[in-house]
Specification:
- It is an enzyme of class 2 (transferase).
- The chain is α/β, with parallel strands linked by helices.
- It is built from eight helices and ten strands.
- The chain is elongated, with a radius of gyration of 19 Å.
Amino acid sequence: MNAKVWLVGAGPGDPELLTLKAVKALRQAEIVMIDDLVNPAVLEHCPDARVVPVGKRGGCRSTPQAFIHRLMLRYARQGKCVVRLKGGDPCIFGRGSEEADWLAQHGIEVEMVNGITAGLAGATNCGIPLTLRGIARGVTLVTAHTQDDSSLNWAALAQGGTTLVIYMGVAKLGEVRESLLAGGMRTDMPVAMIENASLPEQRECRSTLATLQQDAALFQLKSPAILMIGEVAATGQAALAQSA
């Protein structure tokens, strides 16, 4: 049996958003290495697998990435069917490519299974079209948290004309706001803050760049949450109907 690891995106939280291919991988799994933000309900597809928590969350105690690498390698070399189960999509701020490259360097076959990312699911649940004819011709996914604490080119993002979807931005709301304003973005640019995307406890708060921090404080915004900044963040179900 060839050693193999599946890198599977579990989606943003709603277990019904799991893909058929992800279900197929889980049904074959003997070992499931699961991230913190994965909904435990998806484990109904692998009732006989051994579940190994390897969570990584900002501001919390996290499993070292090097340990995750070694654990995947160990189980794969034992001939186990290993699923590395990640929230959202493995390659959208999910370290999927890092893990795939490391495993490949050690002779392990890897198969990637895409998952729906939180930015897409959260927007849809709030009636926000990330692109809209005549208003938003593109969407840009960024993270406010970088490995080396370097700053993004906020001026370019402010002038880009796309819908900005910002992951891991709750702790940096002030920096995001000030940087976009300094880059020339309008103070009245609509903002949507979406917490727990796709889950029953999903909450949303509509705001503008000018009042982003105050509204987030009143709303008591907490992670995990997505920020959506752009004209479409002021739209709802009516805009979806118009764009059809």
